[in-house]
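Example record used in the benchmark description.
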Amino acid sequence: MEDAPLKEFALDDRLANDSVSVAIIGLCDVRLMKDRRWPWLVLIPRRPDKAEVFDLTPLDRVLLTFETDKVASALKTLTGATKINVGALGNIVRQLHVHVIARFEGDANWPGPVWGYGKAEPYSDEDMNSLIAKLRETLSQ
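Model output (structure tokens):
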């Protein structure tokens, strides 16, 4: 009897359409959401068919925590945000992903949640590329 082939990781279409990859930092693909209202990153563990943190192996849960902390700290350093919001909801996109969002007093919908508020405002190519370069540099330190 042959071993079943390992299933490959595939990024959810909605995550792919709403974000752009910044870096792969081990377990996770770190992606920038295409909404300039908030510096907003999403960490997506590159494991197939995972919807919940507890679906990960114990080692992957540790890696996810470490990488979430690293990304949150880098985003805080880079932006000087008032608060970093971290959350894993998955009510619409079931694929496991963790949001890391820089919030500022007076930003769009402060102090309320970012989800479902208004319409996404796209970055200019120049602004997006500049932010991605700064994020890559900060994450590499």
